[in-house]
Amino acid sequence: MSERTYPYKAWLLTRSFQPLEIELVARGYIGSAYDCTESGRNYHIDDLYPSKEAVIAYGERRLIDQAEELAKQNLNLEKRRHELLRHK
């Protein structure tokens, strides 16, 4: 998405991990790294993807990263639980 001509359509991943197609009509007022929709919402260009497949692949990578982070947190929780039970 380096060269942008307006209007154009792009895909983004919502907070609930649903792919959403939006139409961007102008450069955002925040800066050159943002684009704006007709309703005035600004989106960072790093959050926009050219196709539904690309945004789904990004969502899958984020889910893998979150699963790895949760596994680390669970390991630390088990270590704390073990240490606490050791002193019982």
Key traits:
alpha+beta; coiled coil; 25% strand; 88 residues; 4-stranded antiparallel beta sheet
Task: Describe, in short, the structure shown.
The chain is built from one helix and four strands. The model has no long low-confidence stretch (mean pLDDT 93). With 88 residues, it is an alpha+beta fold.
Please describe what this structure looks like.
It is built from 1 helix and 4 strands. The chain is an alpha+beta fold and 88 residues long. It has one domain. Strands 1-2-3-4 form a 4-stranded antiparallel sheet. 7% of the residues are buried. The mean pLDDT is 93. Keywords: Coiled coil.
Give start-end ranges of low-pLDDT stretches: none
Kindly provide the radius of gyration, computed on alpha-carbon positions and rounded to a whole number of angstroms. 20 Å
Strand content: 25-35%
Q: What number is the mean pLDDT?
A: 93
> Helical amount among residues, as a percent range?
25-40%
Overall geometry: elongated
**Biggest sheet architecture:** 4 strands, antiparallel
Strand order of the main beta sheet, please?
A: 1-2-3-4
Oligomer: single chain
Query: How many discrete domains?
Result: 1
What is the string of SSEs from the N terminus onward?
EEEEH
Based on secondary structure, the structural category is alpha+beta
State the end-to-end distance. 59 Å
Count the DSSP helices.
Answer: 1
**Overall strand count:** 4
Keywords: Coiled coil
Coiled coil: 60-87
